[in-house]
Amino acid sequence: QVQRAYNFNAGPSALPLPVLQKAQEELVDFRGSGMSVMELSHRSALYEEVHNEAIRLLKELYKIPEGYHVLFLQGGASLQFSMVPMNFLQAGKSAGYVMTGAWSEKAFAEAKLIGEVFEAASTKQENYKRIPQFDELNYDKDISYLHITSNNTIFGTQWSQFPDTGDVPLIADMSSDILCKPVDVEKFALIYAGAQKNLGPSGVTVVILRPDMLERAAKNLPTMLRYDIHVKNNSLYNTPPTFGIYMLGEVLKWVKDQGGVEGIEQRNREKAALIYDAIDASNDFYRGHAEKDSRSLMNITFTLQSDELEKKFLSEAKKAGFVGLNGHRSVGGCRASTYNAVPVEACQALRDFMIQFQKENS
Ligand code: PMP
Questions:
Q1: What pTM value is reported for the model?
Q2: Do residues 107 and 97 lie in contact, with contact meaning Cβ atoms separated by under 8 Å?
Q3: Inside any domain, residue 157
Q4: How far is the CA of 274 from the centre of ligand 1 (A)?
Q5: Active-site hit among 159, 173, 177, 271
Q6: Nearest-CA residue for atom 4 of ligand 1
Q7: How far does residue 317's CA lie from ligand 1's centre (Å)?
Q8: Where along this sequence does the record place binding of L-glutamate (predicted)?
Q9: Nearest-10 Cα torsion for 163, 121, 94, 153
Q10: Per-residue confidence (pLDDT) for residue 301, from 0 to 100
Q11: The complex's ipTM?
């Protein structure tokens, strides 16, 4: 019986134990090849099987509409902050960004280096404690795209529904909530996500792209920054992060075993409720940062009544075996990231710890 930490890291974060064990088992001799996946040629039939299986599974599990492309790129979600405007921010047009947190700000700042952008809405004045209502979104019909951050890792808010943007391509950074619940992928022209929260290890970036977007993608870009090149080459233009893609495929098989994304969502709701209920029942001992209808299923952010008490909470939690509960360095407080692979038991243990700590300190 391996001793696993109660891992609430914000990313990289917990991976499913069965996936780690299978990777361990297959490490030195992958499917009788006498090599690990890392040692296979990315042009070999055996690797291509791994690669295409991962793409196929993501399409199946996330119910990605026919024709959409799935890409495995590098450079993290952060490179997508640049690639999106480089490819799709057309000359003479602008792009709208919905500002819901620190990562929206980063995406906006990168796009600003490329072309004209504007804030289509922002909740910064309210310290990003909520997602804007649809009627707060302000943009013209002729913009190049509208960009949103579906889950705000640092502030702990999440879009529960997505707007219909008609002919305006909707682009989403789903780094911290991809595959946490079923999503109507059809609403999106492009979705991107770093893998290191819900999908696998860091080093792989998933892009889901609506086919018509390729026609409008810029062609006068460095080759590696062109979506059309990656599509044409099935993400094998150059050497992809093969081991990460293998791990991602194994995580997807695990998701399938959990009852697919629907099963995962049910578990995620159960997990988040355990901790939010502890916050809500605490008589303000714990204070949730997000407004209730903007609460994230993935990152639960809260503070205690004083810095001193918060320090004590974090230090005792650490002693009790909880990892990663410190809030992001930019905002402080506490944050429990309950990504797909975090087991229900870890959330139960945290809930129990929170209740006990409150008893002893109030
Ligand atoms: N967007 C969001 C919502 C994130 O949470 C993160 C990473 N925490 C990023 C973008 C940046 O991702 P990466 O480190 O893969 O560039």
A1: 0.98
A2: yes
A3: yes
A4: 26
A5: 173
A6: 175
A7: 26
A8: 43
A9: -80
A10: 97
A11: 0.99
